[in-house]
Amino acid sequence: MPLRDHFRPPVSKHSSWEGFHAVLPTEMVRQLGPQLPDGYVAEPRVHLGTYYEIDVCTFEKQADDEPFSEADVDRGGGAVATATWAPPAPTITVESDFPEQYSYEVLIFDLERERTLVAAIELVSPANKDRPDHRHLFVAKCANLLQKGVCVSIVDLVTIRRFNLYAELLAVLGRRDPTFGDSPPPTYAATCRKREAGGKTRLDTWSFPLTVGQALPSRLPIWITESLAVPLDLDTSYEEACRVLKIR
Prior knowledge:
Blueprint: H1 11-14, H2 17-32, E1 40-48, H3 56-65, E2 102-110, E3 116-123, H4 126-129, H5 132-147, E4 151-156, H6 165-172, E5 188-197, E6 200-209, E7 220-223, E8 229-232, H7 234-244
Parallel strand pairs: 3-4
Antiparallel strand pairs: 1-2, 2-3, 4-5, 5-6, 7-8
Helix pairs in contact: 2-7, 5-6
C-alpha cells in the first residue's frame, strides 16, 4: 500500500502525526510478535520529554518556613545530629538548554538473558530532525546502541524536513551508503547491526528509500542474534495503523 504524506493535506487535516506515530509502534509489535521465537518479546515505547516541572521555589520556601524542632537535634538516645557538609561553590554556573529526547520505538528483549535488549526500531519524529542538537542526540543514541551490540532499525516517514539521520549515523562512523547517492532521501527505512568476523568489527546495513505514493518494504530485517533475523513487514504495519485511524 502507498506511503501517505502525513504532514500535508488531505491527511494532515484528518489525522495528527502524533496520533499516527503512537499507533504505528503497537502495530509493529503485533506484526513481529508471532515471528519472534520463544524467549523474545517486543514492546512499544513512546517518550515525549518532560511535561511537568517541580516548583523549586515553593519547595525551598516551605523548607525555610518550617520551625526548628528538637527532633532535628535529638536522633534517638539523645545523640546530637552531625552537621551537614557544605560543598564549595561550583566552578561555573551557566544557563543551559538540555534538548529533550523524543522517542517512538519498538524494543525487542531476550528474556533468557534477563531482558537483554537485542534490537530497537526507532521511528523518527519531526522533533528528531528540527535542530542540530536534536539530530546529534538521536544519532548518538543509535551509535551507542550499535556499540552495545543492539541491532538498530530507523524508520523515517517525516516528509517536511530533508535531513537523513541514517546517513548522519554513517557519517559519525566514517562511512556512507552509496545507494543513497549525494542527496539521501528524507524518508527511508534502514537496519544497522554490528558483528564480529575474522577478528574485525563489521557494520552491516540494509537501506530502503521511501517515496510518497509507493509501498513500504515488506521485509525489513530485524536481527535478534548474530545469525537470526526476523522480517518486519513495514508495509502491513503501516497500512494497519492507517486503517485503525481511518486514514485513506
